[in-house]
Every structure is written in C-alpha cells, then in structure tokens.
Amino acid sequence: xxxxxxxxxxxxxxxxxxxxxxxxxxxxxxxxxxxxxxxxxxxxxxxxxxxxxxxxxxxxxxxxxxxxxxxxxxxxxxxxxxxxxxxxxxxxxxxxxxxxxxxxxxxxxxxxxxxxxxxxxxxxxxxx
Length: 128
Fold this sequence. Notes:
Helix content is 20%, strand content 48%. With 128 residues, it is of the alpha+beta class.
C-alpha cells in the first residue's frame, strides 16, 4: 500500500482512496486536490508521478492517467495581468504542465494556494 507524506493534503477522502488504489507500494502520496473545470476531476501527486482523473481521455473515455515526472518538460501558471505571485502564493488557480510529445495539460484548482502547493511538489521532482 502507498505511504502518506506527513504533511499530505487531501481535499476529498474518496479521491485519496482512488489514488491509493493505483499507487505502487513504495510510492509516497503528497497531495490529492479536487479540481474545477470540465476535463479533470482531481489530481494526485506522489514522489513518482502525477495522477489525474481525466473525463475526456482520448476524447472518448474517462480514465485515471499517470504522468511520470520524467515526462514533464514545463510547468506554468496563468498570468491574469499582473504579478503571478502575491505573498508567497500564486494568484492564479490554473496550473499548466507540459508533457514531452503531448499537448499541455491544464489543471484548475480550487484556489491559488492549492495551485502553488501543487507547483512546488511537482517542481521538487522535476528538478531532482
């Protein structure tokens, strides 16, 4: 069973359970965030990958998708016409993840603070 980081953040328990169900025994879950928007329902961040529920996977199916950090080439935040950061938090609640060989994935969080947390977790492993 997957392990939980001591400072793990979880928005909804049922989403955590779905992430736990597909994690490998040595994976460490850092966060599971509920998302807004039509395409994605939630995102899980482990020490090995980004896991997200995609309601429009391959334009036809619902799927839980795994994205290894080794495939991430860019991470960005939407600029809403001003500074991206304010008092240590992203102003935008949208995070963009560029994947080698694929289109950019867009994740809309329920607040800029959660987008900022996700950004920091992702960058920890992308820059490692």
